[in-house]
Amino acid transporter transmembrane domain-containing protein
Amino acid sequence: MAEITQSDLLPREDDAGAAFVLASKGTWWHAGFHLTTAIVGPTLLSLPYAFRGLGWGLGFMCMTLMAIVTFYSYFLMSKVLAQCEKEGRRHIRFRELAADILGSGWMFYFVIFIQGAINTGIGIGSILLAADCLKIMYSNLSPHGPLKLYEFIAMVTAVMIVLSQLPSFHSLRYINLASVLLTLGYTSLVVGSCIHAGIGKNAPKRDYSLNHSESVRVFDAFSSISILAAIFGNGILPEIQATLAPPTTGKMVKGLLMCYIVIFFTFYSSAVSGYWTFGNQSSSNILKNLLPDEGPSLAPTWVIGLAVIFVLFQLFAIGTVYSQVAYEIIEKNSADVKQGMFSMRNVIPRLVLRTLYMVLSGFFAAMLPFFGDINSVVGAIGFIPLDFVLPMLLYNMAFKPSKTSFTYWINFFIIVVFSGAGIMGAFSSVRKLALDANKFKLFSGEVVD
């Protein structure tokens, strides 16, 4: 394994990944749009599903704890990045920040592996959920139509290939503003639909009980915690902060506040309304509960249809945002910064390599349509280390607070607790994946919870 040196950790004049993909031109509200799109997505429709493994009390407690810890975590990471910038070491990549602060070459490869898993997983999941949205609409318009899930995946992949050609993270700023508005739109529609379903004549029977087996309840709880970690996770904050025009001090905090205001209104309303209506029958996509395969729709079809359209459009933005790390790596190794972003020398490799990346993501989405369980695994092995453990460790290493200070010990406590939760969550998630294996079929015509 090649040794990582200090010069490798700083953007160079020939670093096309930095110059093209992570161009530093944005304002704090642009960062807010990027952050909100990265965190607040259709996965919030899985919140009732997460609650069914925790119940009301523990569900509220864990969701609130996740909100507090992630905000604190992202705030600390922003401070570490700002401190490095003041010292003349502006880091624009998570992997370089971790390797610099912790002084370990292996940390560089650990972060890039975890980030790669998260970003690829979310890219695949975005394609899968977008295709499922199309299938939901198609099934209601043509219940006996011949089109299969993998055909909708091919359609979504084609759109993602077009969006993949947007050259830089900064170029997504208005798409991500639209993404924020879409989130508020479909959340309002889904919450209204759940309330309508809960008080309607066809209201489902409510059952909030947990599994009778104590051991199963424990495993379900840790799987739900992993799902919550994935929902609140980000994993690309340094790359988002890199899009800010320097100096970045204070700008990221404003972006975080914007993001968490949206989180407050969307996450809590979705979790409460969905779990209140469907209880332990909540699906990993609450839209499926509102529009069951058998029986009448539990809310006006046009309302659910509009929500599905909003979700579909936002998924395109999310898939594009999380692909930026892959594109940055591709561009860093394939582009020539001296030739210009739109020269034929750079456009052709960008077109070919990004298209290939999206085609592979679409292929795996069609082959492995297991959203609920995979969401849990990604949360445990990806988001928990990057968003709940490393930021506290990086802060303690960079600022070296006194070992008698409250900050040091709260950071240490969070590291220990979430490391344990991540290990248990990974075990529980993989266990559930194995138990559900009999439901899985490669290239299935349905998305499996």
About this structure: The chain has a mean pLDDT of 85. The chain is about 70% helix and 0% strand. Residues 159 and 314 are 13 Å apart (CA to CA).
